[in-house]
Amino acid sequence: MNALPDRRLNAFRPDLAEEALRGTVAAAHYVTGTPAVVAQPVAALRPRPDATAGIDTELLFGEGVRVLDRAEGWAWVKSDFDGYVGYLPEAALDADGPAATPAATHVVAVPRTFAYSGPDLRTPAAFALSIGSRIPVIGESETRGTGYLTLAGGQSVVAGHCLAIGERAGDDYVAIAARFLETPYLWGGRSGFGLDCSALVQLSMMMTGRTAPRDSDMQAAGLGTPIERGALRRGDLVFWKGHVAIMEDEATIIHANGHTMSVAREGLDAAIERIGWLYAQPTGYRRP
Question: What pLDDT score does 279 carry?
Answer without folding.
Answer: 82
